[in-house]
Amino acid sequence: GHFERTPKFGVQGNQSPPMTAFLYRQKAVPYLVMNTLFLCYSFLPVIFSWQRETWLAIPFLMLFPAGFMLVILKDLADMVRMQRG
Question: What is the distance between the alpha carbons of residues 50 and 58, in angstroms, rounded to a whole number?
Fold first, then answer.
């Protein structure tokens, strides 16, 4: 058989999709709350490592909270940008 792709965003053939197709237009507050909870949860291994004095593990374990913090800051920046215009 022959596979025919369903057009997305009304795009036919080799046309490029509209730029609005790539914008993040979901409500940001629930994602902000969820990522904040994940940030708090990601500190638990750091706390356990600190209590057990496994100092060499702490820099590695801090990668996870740092990642969640970057996502939260990006969401906040997007929220501010969307409110300004």
Answer: 7
Query: Which of 40, 46, 39, 42 is closest to 71 using CA atoms?
Result: 39
Q: What are the sequence ranges of the domains in the chain? A: 27-84
* CB under 8 A, 24+ apart: contacts of 68-71: 68/35, 68/38, 68/39, 68/42, 69/39, 71/35
- How far apart are alpha carbons 23 and 9 in whole angstroms? 13
Element (H, E) at 58: helix 57-61
In tens, the pLDDT along 24-71 reads 555 678 888 999 999 999 999 999 999 999 999 999 999 999 999 999
pTM: 0.64
Instruction: Indicate if the pLDDT at residue 5 is higher than 90.
Output: no
State both tokens at 53: 């004095």
